[in-house]
Amino acid sequence: MKDAVDSLTPLGLMVLALLGEGDMHPYEMIRLMRMRRDDRLVAITNGTVYHTVGRLERAGLVAEVGVDREGNRPERTTYTVTDAGARTVGEWVRRELPRIDRPAEFRVALAEAHNLERDEVVALLMTRREGMAQAQAALADGHRFAQHKGVPEQYLLEVDRDEAMLAADLAWLDGLLARLASPEFPWGLDPEPSERYLAQRKAARL
Fold it and tell me: Where are the domains of the chain?
């Protein structure tokens, strides 16, 4: 399991999470991710998705369940997520959600955090908050030391920006943790797909 998690790319994680919603062929995955604007998080091209699906199959995380052909369209192989693949999604999110040194992976983990239980997500985000608070304190100390040494502010603009960005990120995280603490904040996968979701899936298959 550890090897599968370590070798899994953010795109691979998103493919596994998609297949957790139901069996799909790669073309449907591509269209669905683009409809959802997942290309904000990872680069999505036909080549990268097909290559990723192939790697996941070789790793035993997805498996073929059938080949379809409609009219003059090329054959489309449909895949399902295996039990190992489903477990890998949770393990990958658990690994990346509390880390503060991998911002690209964190964004994907946050997007897929609903695959974990609410309480576990809160605990992981609290760990992340502790790390961010420590980083903020260290950055502020370094900034003050540089100022004390007479370093001109023009050379500390990036440090100043980092402090502001970190403060904003902490404020957002505190707000999220407060929302997650409320039972009124919906969490987890919908037990019954909405009409909008079903329409989106249908459009992606065309």
Answer: 2-88+190-205
